[in-house]
Design a protein that fits this description.
globular, three-stranded mixed sheet, disordered N terminus, 8 strands, 6% strand, mainly alpha, three-stranded antiparallel sheet, single chain
Length: 435
């Protein structure tokens, strides 16, 4: 056991030292300033970082090159470039644009998508999605009001779960600026769709989700950082997470994590998201929106005849919506985990392509996955509207074949099985952990 512990400590130490010494550095420019590199220039963001509209993600790229991250995550209207020009350039560095042929071709694809209009949303397509969500909600309300049978009210709970799943996808698209480029419009509509309709803070989701996108499957022991979607205290899908499991109860959970994963997501997924967003939210407007959510929720529950049916109705809806939380996690859980600083020595598009799993399905099932089935495409180009991702996928696959880069795609049930198998195998490795 002692030899194993020493071996793991040596491995992690070497990886951390290699990560610390990788990539361009500001060469002393950041001694008393906060800088970020974009396309060979160091920009002073000292007074800007705390008011960055996209949340804390900027803080994780201080003193690092963030060229592809910047282009990937900002609207195409030119507003971000105006912000960039307003920042002071305090130095330069060698920006090796063509270091990786695959990354170079993916940057070329980015320019092609801009030129050919793939970033332009089809507002009629999204209007139809909104109409479908409205019809689902109306059908649910009709079943609650128009019938007295308990089984019909249970069916209404299923419809509410589907409504929450689909409106959750809509919040996802909104906060990625796939629909509106204007920050104020996006935040306003996102507050209604997310905080009022879905019941989870759109701001909280945006801030955590952008960190997840740009630091996918990464952790940092020194700063206690984890990609928000990579770590839960109830399971460890990779040996890199073992040092975070510190109690005997967590050690016990690791032994049964392949059994509890799906039930935990279904039963606790929605509750965890609600509590997490309420605890972290700081904007008063969001709390008004939370109040509106629970007002319509209580009004809806009051239409049911008794407390037993109300409890069953809400449980069915909440547990059914838990499927969304499974969909969110399985695209990454069977992939490797890296130290956060290691990410900065990797090419952005190659890393995103290799760290994501797509769901293979026919086009008529795209509604069920809400664009998360094209996870490789979405992580490489997160602002491309959902309705264009299938076409973009064909382009990325062509580039992957050209450079022999794996394009990981499997059916939904297979990806779930891969996730459960990964969790199952980890319990044997965890026995080796000296704690």
């Amino acid at each position: 056991m002692g030899a194993y512990k020493e071996h793991m400590e040596n491995v992690l130490t070497k990886r951390q030292k290699a990560a610390d010494s990788s990539g361009p550095t500001p060469n002393g420019l950041a001694a008393d300033r906060k800088v970020v590199g974009v396309a060979g220039k160091w920009y002073d963001v000292t007074t800007f970082v705390d008011r960055h509209p996209g949340g804390d993600v900027l803080k994780y790229f201080l003193n690092k090159d963030a060229t592809d991250v910047f282009r990937s995550s900002h609207p195409v209207s030119g507003v971000s470039e105006k912000y960039l020009k307003s920042l002071k350039v305090v130095g330069t560095y060698k920006y090796d644009f063509g270091a990786d042929p695959f990354n170079q071709d993916m940057r070329g694809l980015y320019e092609r998508l801009l030129k050919e209009g793939y970033y332009k949303p089809n507002l009629w397509w999204y209007a139809r999605k909104v109409a479908v969500c409205g019809l689902i909600f109306a059908a649910m309300l009709w079943l609650v009001v128009g019938f007295q049978q308990t089984w019909v009210h249970c069916l209404a709970g299923v419809l509410l779960a589907i409504f929450w799943q689909q409106i959750g996808f809509m919040m996802h698209d909104l906060m990625h600026h796939q629909i509106f480029e204007t920050q104020k419009v996006t935040n306003l509509v996102g507050t209604f769709v997310g905080s009022v309709c879905f019941g989870v803070s759109a701001n909280w989701w945006r801030d955590e989700h952008w960190v997840h996108h740009m630091l996918t499957n990464t952790i940092c022991y020194k700063t206690d950082f984890q990609d928000p979607q990579v770590f839960e205290p109830t399971w460890a899908q990779n040996v890199m997470l073992f040092p975070l499991m510190k109690t005997k109860f967590q050690a016990f959970l690791v032994q049964i994590q392949h059994i509890i994963f799906i039930p935990a997501c279904m039963i606790g997924g929605r509750l965890d998201a609600i509590i997490g967003s309420y605890k972290e939210e700081k904007e008063f407007r969001q709390y008004i929106a939370f109040g509106l959510h629970w007002m319509w929720m209580c009004a809806l529950l009051s239409l049911l005849p008794n407390w037993e049916e109300r409890a069953v109705f809400y449980a069915i809806a909440a547990f059914g919506e838990g499927l969304l939380h499974i969909q969110i996690l399985i695209n990454h859980y069977a992939k490797d985990i890296f130290l956060k600083d290691e990410l900065h020595q990797m090419e952005f598009y190659r890393y995103q392509t290799e760290q994501n799993i797509n769901i293979s399905n026919p086009w008529w099932m795209d509604w069920f996955h809400g664009g998360l089935n094209f996870h490789i495409e979405h992580h490489c180009f997160p602002r491309v509207p959902r309705h264009n991702l299938r076409k973009v996928g064909d382009m990325i696959q062509e580039i992957c074949r050209k450079h022999n880069v794996p394009y990981d795609s499997s059916p939904f049930t297979t990806v779930i099985w891969r996730t459960l198998n990964t969790l199952y195998n980890m319990k044997f490795l965890f026995k080796l952990d000296p704690r």
